């Protein structure tokens, strides 16, 4: 094993001078200490020298002692050829109606552009529900009626398919519309859907930004605590009784995220 590690280290040491380096393939401008500049594509770089090919095909090699600094031109993602898409969003959602919940959301989506403007993918979300207790029915298993806490101890984790349409190629700033349809199977069970609209800000070579607003619908069951003689009451392992209530929750949200 020791000999193998030494052999690999020697191979890396030999190959390192020939490695293109992190700047390879970048459109750049080399600023030399003598005041001259050279524009082109860096094809190789290490601690000792840098190699650049100008737009007319001429290759130059400079010692790093000759170089003052190097400017790199920002490179945009080519949305005509790059089919894979990934989205990560963070936002906050306010509930409407009764009963209702507010929640922070983290949502992801991964898939492919079937055209330069149309995307189809799948994702998973994390919705951390906080109930607005005043909008829930009162529990009647106490001497005096009290607020019924649905006790969303665990977050909602919807799984969904997403379709998205951008009105222009994403190499430009463009508005978009999206629809997610899925369900929650982990922690809670229920239907989930979410239409949204937003704006895509054109990218650099790594990622771009999106902002959006939208509507989310969840269905779920919760426990409404009650006395044991209430019609339909179900005994709980804690010794109390409850009614199994289903509800549809409506929310509007604001979110921002990155696309890569």
Strand content: over 45%
| CATH fold name of the largest domain | Porin
| CATH 2nd-level architecture of the largest domain | Beta Barrel
Weakly predicted, low-confidence segments: 1-21
What is the class of the largest domain in the CATH system? Answer: Mainly Beta
Using the CA coordinates, give the radius of gyration: 28 Å
What structural class is derived from the secondary structure elements? Answer: mainly beta
Question: What's the N-to-C terminus distance?
Answer: 39 Å
Q: How many helical elements?
A: 1
User: How many domains make up the 3D coordinates?
Assistant: 2
Question: Strand order within the widest sheet?
Answer: 6-7-8-11-12-13-14-16
Number of strands: 16
Helix content: under 10%
Largest sheet: 8 strands, antiparallel, barrel
Helices and strands, in N-to-C order? HEEEEEEEEEEEEEEEE
Principal-axes shape call: elongated
| Average of pLDDT | 86
Characterization of this structure:
This protein is mainly beta and 260 residues long. The protein is built from 1 helix and 16 strands. Strand 12 and strand 13 form a beta hairpin. The chain is elongated and about 90 Å long.
